């Protein structure tokens, strides 16, 4: 009966059960306006409390003159956190691996060192449309590890590639038909046969493209997300979302299409999309209008009609020319628990309970002092910057970037937030990061920085948090900073 | 007045962004252009609705063109006196630069995503041009689209033509014709024409009255509309003066790009207007195809005056 009911209830009932882990009567977030008392991070331990972030490492050139190709455009830990991948505007992927903690080198404390570097995408030219396709890596997503090799998806504006990163530490020697230096031997000269044997060699990490998923997107791809079934993934561009099978490259299913028949009636575009971490039939996508739609693929093949629609009513008193721009969502991420999701718009981060569509359960201001500067930020294009956000492993803390190489952390349990800076000045090993403060008006205190002194060219758009430990990776233009919690 | 200055500045910046997006690597970014067009539309509404007689774009003109902002705004159809032709100055530029082959080739209305629509439209070589043209015009189209949908085109004509008519009342434009960058300069220099409107004030309101008929609550509407937006705007306006970019440099960029922008939008417009039904539209179109194609019903008396309006203002006005 229950099963039937769920089936008949369609997406709604099934979805609710799924998200709540099948239980009824889970605690709901109190219906309070603005920042609510919070329902906790889904009952997770207080991992976010009393974090003391320390500098661990910085990767990248110190040179002041930054080549555009070196600008990091995406950062992502893998499922175990042992590997950290970065993509840059030049189409390269650099993978760092965490060193095993070593008694002989206790201070290394699990440092990340370069594991593999490869050119993922090259610039292309679409001759039909006379358009250049940038090689910039927009997103990297790891696949869960299933064997000795590691797999990741990397995408630029048009093409997604599945890369296999494997180690080779043995070499076969003693071939019959070729010499050790590779020259072919004359078959007539062979008098005896031998079985090749494997000999150890220096570790070599190879990256090879295993699948290329191309020609499925007319507009620029902004997101990819691997499904929890580990067989499919979605890719989203401005107007469409496609579902792929990892093994099949010549076909994809279009599951969302918001392209209007008449492009003049276009009012919103898709800005980000992600699969639910546990429910393989559920995904969300955010729009440029500040709304999020949750879709259930079981309800219909084409998920143009959402199952849930999340929108916070606009505050009419804060209306300006730029209201639409700053409400555009730049990133959407599910919590690890799958119960919440977080959205990032230009000035704030919002945490939503999937069970409440009317408003977020938490709103955290990232840099509210910029609200009065929107016109200047529009002029210099900063208002179009797409900041990402990420959850801490226990969902009790969230992090996002800002300008002047500042990044912000919000502890959802203690309601405390802190502004930290990624800079070479604070890069002494294991040096604690000092909280920074932006002076918004009046007398500037010592150590505070005034809004007008902020360097808007130093922006932290991409950050990543280790899935289990308190280790964060922060991309500051062409440098990658790694910070760890002191107690780590 | 400040709302208007700010709005004008934002309009010019937005147009510059749309223009520059043509040459960006990676093709035209749909999302960014959509956002820019939204800002453009908002700024334009404020610009056209602000009842400042000092500038050539007078208040009443904009009212039907700004439905969301103006409460209870009936689309009064082409208000009385809106038979004036679109600026001939622009038309002088436009016909020269119309890439004719591209227009007929595009069966569907112009779209923003140059990636896709460019394909059916363009032949080799023209691809980029068509792309940028379409993108630019589509950006504009989008700006006008909703309004047009709401008012069946009448509002658009109103918006397009009202300001032109109003110009006649204010003594500003003739003064403005002295410098090509006059439009840019005029508001920035705190409207040298400010004293003039003071004189024109008595005649202006009554003359403007009939046009206001279609714009209920013009006084209250525009004030209510831009007001919330004005405070955040004012501060950045002052801040931006201090910025290294500088208002002067901004103006430089505007005038430098104006001819190109006009050419883009001009050619776009010919296509737009050709496809659109409506009498007012045809007026503009006829106007565009040049003085040589004297459209019946064209009121040409203002052409000599309007021709002298710098192309920048005419571009805005035409939108």
Automatic annotation (TrEMBL), chain A:
Regions annotated as coiled coil: none
Alphabetically ordered keywords of this record: Repeat, WD repeat
Signal peptide from the UniProt entry: none
Flavoprotein is among the record's keywords: no
SUPFAM superfamilies from the UniProt entry: WD40 repeat-like
Domain of life: Eukaryota
Residue numbers spanned by region Disordered: 22-41, 420-441
Gene3D superfamilies in the cross-refs: YVTN repeat-like/Quinoprotein amine dehydrogenase
Family that this chain belongs to: Belongs to the phosphatase 2A regulatory subunit B family.
Name this protein carries in UniProt: Serine/threonine-protein phosphatase 2A 55 kDa regulatory subunit B
Organism, scientific name: Felis catus
UniProtKB/TrEMBL annotation, chain B:
Biased composition (Low complexity): 72-83
Location of the region described as Disordered in the Swiss-Prot/TrEMBL record: 60-122, 141-300
Compositional bias segments (type: Basic and acidic residues): 141-150, 189-199
One Pfam match: IER
Biased composition annotated in UniProt, kind: Polar residues: 257-270
Domain of life assignment: Eukaryota
Compositionally biased spans, kind Gly residues: 216-227
Family of the protein in this entry: Belongs to the IER family.
Protein name: Immediate early response gene 5 protein
């Amino acid at each position: 009966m229950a099963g039937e009911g769920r089936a008949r209830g369609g997406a709604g009932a099934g979805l609710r059960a799924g998200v709540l882990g099948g239980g009824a009567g889970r605690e709901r977030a109190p219906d309070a306006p603005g920042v609510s008392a919070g329902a906790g991070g889904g009952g997770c331990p207080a991992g976010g409390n009393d974090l003391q972030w320390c500098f661990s490492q910085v990767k990248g050139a110190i040179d002041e003159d930054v080549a555009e190709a070196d600008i990091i455009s995406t950062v992502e830990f893998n499922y175990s956190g042992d590997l950290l991948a970065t993509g840059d505007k030049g189409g390269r992927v650099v993978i760092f691996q965490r060193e095993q903690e070593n008694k002989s080198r206790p201070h290394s404390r699990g440092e990340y060192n370069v594991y593999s570097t490869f050119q993922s995408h090259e610039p292309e030219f679409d001759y039909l449309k006379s358009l250049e396709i940038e090689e910039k890596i927009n997103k990297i997503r790891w696949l869960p590890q299933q064997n000795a090799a590691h797999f990741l998806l990397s995408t630029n504006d048009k093409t997604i590639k599945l890369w296999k990163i494997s180690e080779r530490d043995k070499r076969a020697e003693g071939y019959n038909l070729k010499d050790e230096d590779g020259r072919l031997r004359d078959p007539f000269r062979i008098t005896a046969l031998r079985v090749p044997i494997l000999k150890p060699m220096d570790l070599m990490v190879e990256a090879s493209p295993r699948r290329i998923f191309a020609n499925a997107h007319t507009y620029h791809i902004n997101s990819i997300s691997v499904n929890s079934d580990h067989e499919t993934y979605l890719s989203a561009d401005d107007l469409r979302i496609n579902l792929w099978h990892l093994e099949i490259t010549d076909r994809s299913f279009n599951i969302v299409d918001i392209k209007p028949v008449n492009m003049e009636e276009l009012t919103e575009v898709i800005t980000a999309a992600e699969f639910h971490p546990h429910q393989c039939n559920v995904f969300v996508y955010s729009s440029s209008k500040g709304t999020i739609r949750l879709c259930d693929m079981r309800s219909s093949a084409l998920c143009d009609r959402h199952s849930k629609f999340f929108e916070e009513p606009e505050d009419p008193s804060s209306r300006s020319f730029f209201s639409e721009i700053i409400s555009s969502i730049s990133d959407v991420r599910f919590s690890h628990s799958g119960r919440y999701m977080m959205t990032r718009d230009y000035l704030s981060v919002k945490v939503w309970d999937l069970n409440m569509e009317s408003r977020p359960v938490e709103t955290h201001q990232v840099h509210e002092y910029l609200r009065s500067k929107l016109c200047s930020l529009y002029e210099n294009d900063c208002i179009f910057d797409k900041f990402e956000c990420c959850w801490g492993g226990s969902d009790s803390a969230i992090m996002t970037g800002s300008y002047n190489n500042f990044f912000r952390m919000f502890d959802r349990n203690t309601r405390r937030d802190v502004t930290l800076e990624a800079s070479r000045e604070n890069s002494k090993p294991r040096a604690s990061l000092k909280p920074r403060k932006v002076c918004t008006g009046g007398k500037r205190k010592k150590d505070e920085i005034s809004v007008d002194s902020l360097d808007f060219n130093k922006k932290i758009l991409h950050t990543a948090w280790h899935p289990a430990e308190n280790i964060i990776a922060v991309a500051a233009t062409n440098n990658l900073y790694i910070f760890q919690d002191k107690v780590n | 007045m400040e709302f208007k200055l700010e709005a004008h500045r934002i309009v010019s910046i937005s147009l510059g962004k749309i223009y520059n997006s043509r040459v960006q690597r990676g093709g035209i970014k749909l999302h960014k252009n959509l956002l820019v067009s939204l800002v453009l539309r908002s700024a334009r509404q404020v610009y056209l609705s602000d009842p400042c007689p000092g500038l050539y774009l007078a208040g009443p003109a904009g009212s039907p063109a700004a439905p969301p902002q103006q409460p209870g705004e009936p689309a009064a159809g082409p208000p009385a006196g809106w038979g004036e032709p679109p600026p001939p100055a622009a038309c002088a530029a436009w016909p020269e630069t119309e890439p004719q082959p591209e227009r007929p080739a595009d069966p569907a209305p112009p779209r923003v995503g140059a990636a896709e629509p460019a394909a059916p439209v363009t032949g080799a070589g023209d691809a980029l041009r068509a792309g940028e043209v379409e993108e630019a015009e589509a950006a504009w189209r989008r700006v006008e689209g909703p309004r047009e949908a709401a008012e069946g085109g009448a509002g658009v004509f109103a918006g397009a033509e009202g300001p032109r008519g109003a110009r006649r009342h204010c003594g500003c434009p003739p003064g403005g014709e002295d410098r090509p960058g006059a439009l840019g300069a005029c508001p920035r220099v705190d409207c040298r024409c400010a004293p003039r409107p003071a004189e024109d004030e008595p005649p202006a309101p009554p003359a403007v009255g009939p046009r206001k008929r279609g714009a209920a609550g013009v006084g209250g509407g525009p004030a209510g509309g831009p007001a919330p937006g004005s405070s955040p705007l004012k501060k950045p306006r002052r801040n931006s003066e201090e910025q290294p970019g500088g208002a002067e440099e901004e103006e430089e960029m505007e005038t430098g790009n104006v001819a190109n922008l006009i050419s883009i939008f001009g050619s776009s417009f010919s296509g737009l207007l050709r496809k659109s039904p409506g009498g007012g539209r045809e007026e503009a179109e006829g106007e565009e195809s040049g003085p040589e194609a004297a459209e019946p019903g064209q009121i040409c008396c203002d052409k000599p005056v309007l021709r002298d309006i710098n192309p920048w203002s005419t571009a805005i006005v035409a939108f």
